Amino acid sequence: MGASTLKPGVVSGKDYDILMAACKEGGYALPAVNATGTNTVNAIMEAAAVNKSDVIIQFSNGGAQFFAGQGLPDGDQAKVLGAVSAAQHVHMLAEHYGVCVVLHTDHANKKLIPWVEGMLDHGEAFYKETGKPLYSSHMLDLSEEPIDWNLGECARILERMAKMGMSLEIELGVTGGEEDGIGGEFDESADNSKLYTQPEDVLKAYDLLSPIGSFSVAASFGNVHGVYKPGNVKLRPEILKNSQDLVQRSHNVGQNPLNLVFHGGSGSDKGQIKEAVGYGVFKMNIDTDTQFAFSEAVGAFVDEHPKAFKYQIDPEDGTPFKKFYDPRKWLRAGEQNMVKRLTEAFEDLGSKGKSIARA
Ligand SMILES: [Zn+2]
Q: Tell me: the pLDDT tens digits for 98-121?
């Protein structure tokens, strides 16, 4: 193995399985980067092309809504339409960047199941027209619900998705952090069965879902969403290894049978990221750090040209400021710094130079 190649562009179905297997065999993971508009989408594809890495572009429900426009009166509709519009943009452009791109949507809790189903309505129409799914995968995060209900819903939705060759990302255990409304501090002495995914639960998911279709698991091993003070993140990547070993033993399959996902990795130790990747993590979410990179560069641009953001023409000497306040100038500065931050992510995850796309 290791010789697998794919055509550049959006990958799904068996091709997505090939890509996930290539990551695990090659000992690297792909960054899954949150996007909110064409600027961030294009910066992600540019970064992947520059680094010769494949990449995952993902949208949260809020990111999809922003893509559609905050002015649309029906927010729920905007979350669906924005996701559809964003995916069409990526389908149009991805192959021209010469790398493989996975299209994915992020966390959907119980309240957001209708969002996922709305995207699937559009996805089925797209599939009918093109023979390809609109998204490579969606995520359902029902980790706050009882495990049996969580897995039952995942099975129901995966049945529908598998018909189009789509993959489902699920979440087991609770990942702390702002997104989930949980405080940043862990009490290590507390009942940590809630904070760390149990390998038995992962096996349960494998038993139920693997006969239906392709799926991946975001497991909690002490990871948190957002950036916290050093010392507050106590990662235990061995939980991932224990889950892999249990599934491997129970089903008599090869090493690292599970496709694992690392959520809330911002600010974590590079050694532990490497260890997690060795246990079959093929996808690591990144959002906080790329948001900051974009804004940091825009802030620096404004600091450098403060008058251009107050006056069209210099009130003292009549110099026109158009070349500074043109939004393309400062948006481009943001894009370029996002590319720079993503270059670091590709290096940390070992995916730089490893794209399996061949024209
Ligand atoms: Zn998560």
A: 999 999 999 999 999 999 999 999
Domains parsed from the chain with CATH numbers: 9-288 (3.20.20.70)
Got the DSSP string for 165-211?
A: T-EEEEEESPPEEGGGTB-S---TTS-TTTTB--HHHHHHHHHHHTT
Selecting among 15, 54, 106, 287, the annotated active-site residue is 106
- 326: tokens are 């043109």
How many angstroms separate the CA atoms of 225 and 209, rounded? 26
CA 172 – ligand 1 centroid, Å: 9
Q: How is residue 136 written in tokens?
A: 């490579």
Around Cβ 94, how many Cβ atoms within 10 Å?
25
Q: Which residue has the tokens 């897995």?
A: 151
247 Cα to the center of ligand 1, angstroms:
22
Give the model confidence (pLDDT) of 274-326 as tens digits.
999 999 999 999 999 999 999 999 999 999 999 999 999 999 999 999 999 99
* The pLDDT of residue 191 is above 50: no
Distance, in Å, from the CA atom of 288 to the CA atom of 264, rounded to the nearest integer, reads 9
**Annotation says 106 is catalytic:** yes
Cα(147) to centroid(ligand 1), Å? 15
First to last CA, the chain: 20
Distance 219 CA to ligand 1 centre (A): 8
